[in-house]
Amino acid sequence: MAGGKKKGGGGKSAVNAARGQMPGKGKPWGTIIAVVVVLVLAVGVFGYTYVQINAKNEAQAALAQWQPSDSNKDPSTKIPGVVVKDYKSGQHVQPTQRVAYDQSPPFGGPHDGFWADCQGIVYPNAVRSENMVHALEHGTVWIAYNPDKVKGADLDTLKLKVQGKQFMMLSPYPGLDKAVSLQSWGHQLKVDSVKDSRIDEFISALRTNQYEYPEVGASCDALGPGQFDPANPPPFDPSKPGPDAVPMTGTGAQDAANEQGGTPPPSGSGAAPTSTTASK
After folding, report:
1. Fewer CB within 10 Å of terminal CB in the chain, N or C?
2. 3-state class of 152 per DSSP?
């Protein structure tokens, strides 16, 4: 009987060996699970990247209709809420003078002879309006916000639209009647939320739109101490201008020298033009 059992056992081992199986070992579940995890992660990363790229492409396609062209010089007129006014350009006031602007924030009219730095700068404090308006004359979009309404993550959202982008600037504007107000020369849009899609539409339509701002090719570079120092800009004055303020007609202002120069940047591109100096 003992001899028969050994013979039978040996026969089963031989069969297992022939089938490629080793006695006492199962499937390598650890390896299988690791491979599955890697595959799942790879699919997740690929899927996320695809979604992000697709969303970016869709956003760019949606903004395409707001790009200015010879046949569509001012796309902003199709954006609900945009106010358009015609202002005379090239009227300069002195650093000690104020302008009795007709809008708040202003978006055209007489302005300081030195423009505000508008090379994608975020001003932490409110800046003198007369300098900011001059930057609009050079093709800039100025985003102003009510510091009591826009904070934290909302403020970060606005900063991302400005930082590192030429012909863009952001600053608080105390007393603003809406959360956010966008200005370009002769154009303004006020919105209640930083998530309003019209913000990007306005920027696309009017930043360096060569058909809509007076001094195509003018610089947006910082002028520096003694002229306009972005590290210490002239502060915003919330008080009402006095009787000696320059009116919107420009009485008391000086005609500016031509600040145009260099090759105009493509509309909406924010490409830097040749630098010029401000007239005094």
Report:
1. N
2. helix
